[in-house]
């Protein structure tokens, strides 16, 4: 059975000031197997973040439904951990307290909680920074904490909405390796939204390419590159071939978006 | 001068003090130099002399203490009532829809105009003074707190939901801590206004306090005493402001880190 099932999910936003309603997502069907790392790749504004937010339960679909382990998603919950593009650490909590947040909400005993928090601090390489406030951390460290915070809750699926989008290129590369390393060791079902083609290929066992708005699935590409993956993989011929193919797919969609803009305005 | 260019700490202090010096020098020049009638404006030296006599002979420090007690008493009453209401309004939109129009209206009712009514209800004792400050502060605090709470970062709320928070958990463990420094800052601001209300309350139907001393001095044309009283209020305000800021820094180190 699939871990996650997206069945005919679409989203239409009501028209603004008497305007026509805007269709953000065409009906989407997607089945995600357990422990798969899926990246959703699409041009900006294609509705890929909307799709992820619907899976998270932060937005309701206009039609269709999302099933996690056979149960319909109606609201956000701890079984779907999320990492956002914006820095969403709680600024009044330290790194350790941020990571403990979900466990505290669940009412876990402090003894057990401390061990789990320590192990996740270690996992994302933030030892020595447990008692720092988020403001004292770099963007990369904040996102590492956010990943640890989501994972510490042991969610059924991890949702990431362009988590490295605001980071510089070098940090972004390191973060990709870190997250992929965690996934290779711990196995988790992951849905990762990005507009970066390299990132989409490097991380994924399967890339879903979306069309320009209204978003729908354009192609579904299995990435059979071996694990564990090393950053040098990005310069291999197999990688380049995949990149060439997806670049072509995305380019067409990006051009459609660019041409659609004046008409929308 | 380059716009927005920062000034060094040393120069900042020098510039800040020099205005006080200029101000007092101007005051001394027009009074001691005989440019204004001494009946209407005392010079700085006689102001200090009058102030000293007030403190030593007339036990003015008792008036100062009673005024401080009134400000803080009324202010604490207003805060205890207003902060929870403000948080509730900011967090739950039906509560806001229910209360906001009335509070917005009540905010413009001048506290000083309530004094005759409050005297009828509560007499001219301490309760009446506290109520003037309460009426003057409570609606202001409610509205500002409600606006701050209403603009809580939505992404933090969403993050908390995906970590398993319940609706009540969001209010207690996201909305309240996220806005605590801003609420404390609001209280600091309103405390400043409370000092205005207390003096007005003491000008009418009172037999003690700084405001009473001021109105009493007016009938004797003791402008030195009046100015001394005003300066004392300014100094206490400044001190309580510093104390409040220091307390906020102590309570919310994360917002300044």
UniProtKB/TrEMBL annotation, chain A:
Residues 4-237 form the ABC transporter domain. Keywords: ATP-binding, Nucleotide-binding, Transport. GO terms for molecular function: ATP binding. It holds the Pfam family ABC_tran. Gene3D superfamilies: P-loop containing nucleotide triphosphate hydrolases (3.40.50.300). It comes from the Bacteria. Belongs to the ABC transporter superfamily. This is ABC transporter ATP-binding protein.
């Amino acid at each position: 059975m699939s871990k996650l099932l997206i069945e005919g999910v679409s989203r239409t936003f009501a028209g603004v000031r008497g305007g026509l309603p805007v269709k953000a997502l065409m009906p989407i069907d997607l089945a995600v197997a357990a422990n798969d790392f899926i990246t959703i790749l699409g041009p900006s504004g294609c509705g890929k973040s909307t799709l992820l937010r619907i899976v998270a339960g932060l937005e309701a679909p206009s039609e269709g439904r999302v099933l996690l382990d056979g149960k319909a998603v109606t609201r956000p919950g701890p079984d779907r951990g999320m990492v956002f593009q914006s820095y969403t650490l709680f600024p009044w909590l330290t790194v350790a307290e941020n990571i403990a947040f979900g466990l505290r909400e669940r009412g876990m005993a402090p003894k057990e909680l401390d061990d789990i928090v320590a192990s996740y601090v270690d996992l994302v390489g933030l030892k020595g920074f447990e008692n720092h406030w988020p403001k004292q951390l770099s963007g990369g460290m904040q996102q590492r904490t956010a990943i640890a915070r989501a994972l510490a809750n042991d969610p059924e699926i991890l949702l990431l909405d362009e988590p490295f989008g605001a980071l510089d290129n070098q940090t972004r590369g390191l973060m990709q390796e870190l997250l992929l390393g965690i996934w290779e060791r711990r196995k988790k079902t992951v849905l990762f939204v990005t507009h970066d083609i390299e990132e989409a290929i490097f991380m994924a066992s399967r890339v879903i390419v979306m069309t320009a708005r209204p978003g729908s699935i354009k192609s579904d590409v299995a990435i059979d590159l071996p694990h564990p993956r090393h950053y040098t993989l990005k310069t291999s011929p197999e990688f380049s071939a995949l990149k060439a193919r997806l670049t072509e797919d995305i380019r067409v969609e990006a051009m459609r978006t660019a041409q659609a803009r004046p008409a929308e305005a | 001068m380059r716009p927005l260019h920062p000034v060094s700490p040393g120069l900042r202090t020098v510039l800040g003090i020099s205005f006080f010096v200029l101000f007092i020098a101007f005051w001394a020049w027009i009074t001691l130099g005989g440019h204004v009638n001494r009946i209407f404006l005392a010079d700085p030296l006689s102001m200090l002399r009058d102030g000293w006599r007030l403190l030593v002979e007339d036990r003015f420090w008792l008036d100062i203490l009673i005024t401080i007690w009134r400000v803080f008493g009324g202010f604490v009453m207003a805060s205890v009532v207003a902060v929870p209401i403000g948080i509730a309004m900011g967090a739950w939109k039906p509560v806001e829809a229910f209360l906001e129009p009335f509070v917005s209206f009540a905010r413009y009712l001048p506290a000083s105009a309530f004094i005759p009514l409050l005297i009828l209800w509560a007499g001219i004792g301490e309760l009446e003074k506290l109520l003037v400050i309460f009426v003057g502060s409570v609606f202001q605090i409610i509205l500002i707190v409600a606006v701050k709470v209403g603009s809580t970062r939505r992404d933090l709320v969403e993050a908390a939901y995906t970590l398993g928070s319940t609706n009540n958990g969001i209010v207690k463990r996201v909305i309240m801590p996220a806005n605590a420094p801003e609420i404390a800052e609001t209280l600091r601001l309103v405390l400043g206004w409370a000092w205005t209300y207390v003096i007005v309350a003491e000008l009418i139907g009172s037999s003690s306090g700084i405001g009473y001393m001021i109105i009493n001095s007016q009938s004797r044309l003791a402008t030195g005493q009046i100015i001394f009283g005003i300066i004392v209020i300014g100094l206490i305000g400044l001190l309580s402001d510093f104390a409040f800021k220091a307390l906020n820094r102590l309570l919310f180190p994360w917002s300044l880190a």
